[in-house]
Amino acid sequence: MSRQRSKRSVNSRQKGLLGETKAMSALVARGYGISLPIAAEAYDFIARSDTKIHWVQAKYCKSYVPPKKSTGYVRSRLKIRYKSWHRGGRGRVVKYKKIIDFDVVNLVTVFLPEVDEVCFFTKEMLKGQDELSINIHDDQSKNYYKRYTNPKWL
Predict the structure, then answer these.
(1) Which stretches does DSSP call E strand in 37-136?
(2) Quick check: 73 and 62 in contact, CB under 8 A?
(3) Helical H runs in 47-129?
(4) Alpha-carbon distance 20 to 41, whole Å?
(5) Does the pTM of the predicted model rise above 0.85?
(6) pLDDT in tens, 46-64
(7) What is the pLDDT of residues 10-20, one digit of tens each?
(8) 79 and 126 in contact (C-beta within 8 Å)?
(9) Looking at the DSSP assignment, which residues form a beta bridge with residue 132?
(10) Residue 20, SS3?
């Protein structure tokens, strides 16, 4: 009797781990050492070289494909922050929840599985934005992913 492998979908935790390990691998290849926290922290890991230390938040970002009737282009989207609106006790409204704590994190990495690349963003590059769009097809776009895969400042 032969065993047939079923296609397993990757859950959110596995995607997060893949984003973290790809980012760690990319940083190690650039000469950084990696340190992992032993307790839950606002960052995923620390990357350090002889001259720099980065507190890193790693993300996994699958492409967003617009509907067929749309004239938009295929792109990868990463939501940096979101607003969480819900009712608290006695009708109070909780308005905002941060995904990335920029008081602690100074480097955000984004793994793009379609192109198997990691993009790097400093907190200054993301300041004031609610959403980051990364284009994976149009090399003329200002947000083309290759502009962020091998930055000189890293």
Answers:
(1) 45-48, 53-60, 63-64, 75-79, 86-87, 93-94, 107-112, 117-122, 131-134
(2) no
(3) 123-126
(4) 14
(5) no
(6) 999 999 999 999 988 876 6
(7) 788 898 899 99
(8) no
(9) 78
(10) helix
